[in-house]
Write a structure and sequence with these properties.
Layout lengths: L2 E5 L8 H14 L5 E6 L4 H5 L11 H5 L5 H4 L1 E2 L5 E4 L4 H9 L8 H6 L6 E6 L5 H9 L2 E7 L8 H12 L7 H4 E8 L5 H9 L7 E7 L3 H8 L3 H4 L5 H15 L1
Length: about 250
């Protein structure tokens, strides 16, 4: 049974795209899972990170949401075994505007992905609580919220929780404990005070913080130039690779 994970934070710059790409790579490579990665951000950074020119794609997730094509027609094979991608481009902005007038607009993505045969679907969301993000929240089995050691990355976190609870309230099986996890990202081990303060701000949801923490590293910039996830690029273990192997295993075991 497939599991859908939406990577969401209202603040930009917290590493959503890097996490989406490398978690997808970890699940496909070390987890040997069949994975579909969806670029649901009009900036199309995930698409570009796989060496795909956004404006040259034939179909994207925007076409799927507008019922122009089935999801299967928009899927692109990546260089990584078991890892596929549904790309996007700036047309996704226009699609979102049109969705505002559509019936069942928050369930478009759920309907489109219903029959796809994958172990995991990872959705890289835009940094706003938009109609696109609501679509991701509706279809997601798990919301993964990256937070960096910066108090501003906590901005809007309560709004996210309230929106999630509101959207999922019609589901009798919904439980926040089962539906949300927090990932501490870009941890600088030399800092002590700031991480403690951030975790203190998260005291009420401390039990939702994943054990895995992603350490700050320049390794992740390499993925922007290599067109593949970090785990497929490194020939020897690094701290960054170790962190994503740990994250992969923790997600699989949830």
């Amino acid at each position: 049974m497939k599991k859908t994970i939406a990577v969401i934070n209202q603040k930009g710059g917290v590493g959503k795209t890097t996490i989406s790409i490398n978690l997808s790579g970890g699940l496909a490579i070390t987890g040997n899972k069949r994975v579909l990665l969806i670029d649901l951000d009009p900036q199309a950074n995930t698409t570009f990170n796989f060496g795909i020119i956004p404006e040259e794609i034939q179909y994207g997730i925007h076409d799927v949401l507008m019922d122009r094509v089935r999801a299967e027609s928009a899927i692109i094979k990546t260089k990584i075994k078991n890892l596929d991608l549904i790309p996007t481009n700036s047309h996704l902005d226009r699609a979102e505007q049109l969705l505002l007038q559509a019936t069942y607009r928050e369930e478009r993505l759920k309907r489109a992905l219903r029959d796809l045969d994958y172990d995991y679907i990872i959705i890289d969301c835009r940094p706003t609580l938009s109609t696109l993000t609501l679509n991701a929240m509706v279809v997601a089995d798990l919301i993964l919220v990256p937070i960096i050691m910066d108090r501003y990355s906590l901005y809007g976190f309560n709004d996210l929780l309230n929106s999630l609870q509101s959207i999922k309230s019609v589901d009798p099986h919904f439980s926040l404990d089962n539906s949300l996890r927090i990932l501490l990202n870009a941890i600088d081990l030399r800092e002590k005070v700031v991480p403690e303060l951030v975790i203190k701000d998260l005291e009420e949801v401390r039990h939702l913080i994943l054990n895995t923490q992603i350490r700050k590293s320049s390794d992740f910039k390499k993925t922007q130039y290599s067109d593949i996830p970090l785990l497929a690029m490194e020939t020897k273990p690094t701290k960054s690779v170790e962190d994503y192997i740990s994250l992969t295993n923790e997600i699989i075991n949830l």
